[in-house]
Design a protein that fits this description.
Layout (H helix, E strand, L loop, with lengths): L3 H4 L1 E4 L8 H6 L12 E4 L4 E2 L5 H20 L3 E3 L6 H7 L17 H5 L5 E10 L2 E10 L4 E11 L4 H17 L8 E7 L7 E6 L6 E2 L7 E6 L5 E6 L6 E6 L4 E6 L5 E6 L6 E7 L2 E7 L7 E4 L5 E6 L5 E6 L6 E10 L2 E9 L6 E7 L5 E8 L4 E8 L6 E2 L7 E6 L5 E8 L6 E10 L6 E2 L6 E7 L5
Parallel strand pairs: 2-4, 2-5, 3-5
Antiparallel strand pairs: 1-7, 5-6, 6-7, 8-9, 8-31, 9-10, 11-12, 12-13, 13-14, 15-16, 16-17, 17-18, 19-20, 20-21, 21-22, 23-24, 24-25, 25-26, 27-28, 28-29, 29-30
Length: 466
């Protein structure tokens, strides 16, 4: 079987000639605005060239539901139930799908759809051809009465339909926000299959589907981290007795040890350009931060001080490193300003970011480097929760509360969502086993990611799409 990218011919339909760059800019969603709200979305069941074929009917229903679900998942859209516009579709007797090549928006009565408070709709048509299915998809912004995204996918095998739907959903997000989508991104995390099994490293799609195991054996494996280009994963493994740092090559499916300093080699993070890996190591009786080339070799001391220095996290713009230090007592977050000359990376200055909280840990940077999320222990309620603040420590906000322990937060590639682990049972404050959860960046829409594991922790979201 030929690879999908060779089999599927993708033709980008040109936007209507009446849409100029100014009008496109005016419909973008400002996701950082305090007035931001989700757009109301309708995705009618896809039209068919063979409407009486039961197999094709099932494909059309499943495909339209999947696309609507993806966009709802993004946190930018609210999908309306199809019952709301079922009567309207019957009145049209399916004319909105009779748009060969999807030129313009002929057949769509903008006023009637807007009367249902629908702001965005996606129409599509599926045709069975000799080399597979052909999908024509168009997104219409009803507020302006304009088509904003149109694409054609040809030669699509049934098993590849989900792939073209995730690609299209990413294009829709890109059009409305100006940022890349998340639907072709990946997660890497630590999980246990059952109570007695060892912790292993796994990879999945952004929504927990297509799980693949990375590490093997009966040893403990921890702290996975993506390289910026998505080609490698570093993690810590006890497979040789010591907690050593390993690098996994996704293309070759090979693993090699890159740091085996005596004692801890953990909590790795990649610099923005992938040239440096920082991790936590031991120097004498002290825990410090070290740097290392992805090729391995001699690790160099990077940040040293009295007491604990752990959990390094490079900012995507390459200017900073956030980390946790207990140099002044309880562990708090610090920010180091960096300077890189060639392969030499040094700290120019350091700034303490947090003062509140008993134990603050696991910082992670937003894609634009303006925000930091972290997990903090609140001694008064005996719970870990997720917090967000500006990169200078100002405007601290709490995103979770009274839902068990919430830890290891990590940003999505577009900065719109946050993934984290929680041991909540349902929506209660009762503790169980940690599982992965996702929420919007403001803490809303918290929901569990369905994964087939006894326990899941320490997720890292890829910085790119695949």
């Amino acid at each position: 079987m030929k690879p999908m990218k060779k089999r599927i011919k993708i033709t980008i339909l040109l936007l209507l000639s009446t849409i100029c760059s100014t009008s496109l800019a005016s419909i973008k969603i400002n996701i950082d605005s305090p007035k931001f709200r989700r757009l109301v979305l309708a995705v009618p069941t896809f039209g068919l060239a063979t409407p009486n074929n039961r197999v094709h009917q099932q494909i059309a229903r499943q495909a339209s539901d999947r696309l609507a679900g993806l966009l709802q998942y993004s946190g930018l859209f609210n999908q309306v139930k199809k019952d709301l516009y079922k009567k309207l579709l019957k009145e049209y007797k399916d004319p909105i799908f009779k748009t060969s090549g999807l030129p313009g928006i002929k057949g769509v009565d903008i006023a009637q759809w807007k009367s249902l408070n629908i702001e965005t709709m996606i129409i599509a048509h599926i045709t069975q051809k000799s080399d597979g299915f052909e999908f024509l998809l168009k997104t219409i912004d009803l507020r302006k009465g304009e088509s904003v995204v149109g694409k054609k996918y040809s030669g699509v095998a049934r098993g590849d339909i989900d792939k073209i739907l995730t690609k299209y959903a990413d294009h829709v997000l890109k059009q409305y926000t100006g940022s890349d989508g998340i639907f072709n991104s990946k997660l890497v995390f630590v999980a246990k299959k059952n109570r007695k099994s060892s912790k292993q490293i796994y990879m999945s799609n952004f929504d927990g589907s297509d799980v693949q195991q990375i590490s093997r054996g009966n040893s403990i494996n921890l702290s996975p981290s993506w390289s910026p280009d998505g080609k490698y994963i570093t993690y810590t493994s006890y497979r040789d007795g010591n907690p050593d740092l390993f690098l996994y090559d996704l293309a070759r499916r090979t693993t090699k040890k890159i740091s085996s300093r005596r004692g801890m080699n953990s909590g790795s993070t990649w610099s923005h350009n992938g040239s440096v890996i920082a991790f936590t190591g031991v120097r004498g009786t002290d825990t410090d931060l070290f740097t290392l080339s992805p090729n391995g070799g001699l690790a160099k001391p990077f940040i040293q001080g009295q007491g604990l220095d752990v959990d390094p996290s490079f900012s995507p713009n390459g200017q900073y490193l956030a980390y946790v230090s207990a140099r002044y007592g309880n562990p708090h977050l610090f920010r180091a300003t960096l300077q890189q000359t060639g392969k030499t990376l040094k700290v120019v200055s350091e700034k303490r970011l947090t003062y509140a909280g008993w134990y603050n840990t696991t910082p992670d940077w937003s894609p634009n480097s303006s925000k930091i999320i972290f997990s903090g222990y609140d001694k008064d309620i005996d719970r870990y929760d997720v917090f967000v603040m500006n990169n200078d420590g100002t405007k601290l906000e709490r995103l979770t509360l009274k839902t068990g322990d919430n830890e290891d937060p990590n940003w999505s590639p577009n900065g719109q969502l946050i993934i984290f682990s929680s041991n909540r049972i349902g929506g209660s404050n009762t503790k169980g086993k940690h599982q992965l959860y996702m929420m919007s960046k403001d803490g809303s829409s918290q929901r569990k990611i369905n994964l087939p594991f006894y326990e899941v922790t320490q997720a890292d979201w890829s910085k790119n799409v695949f």
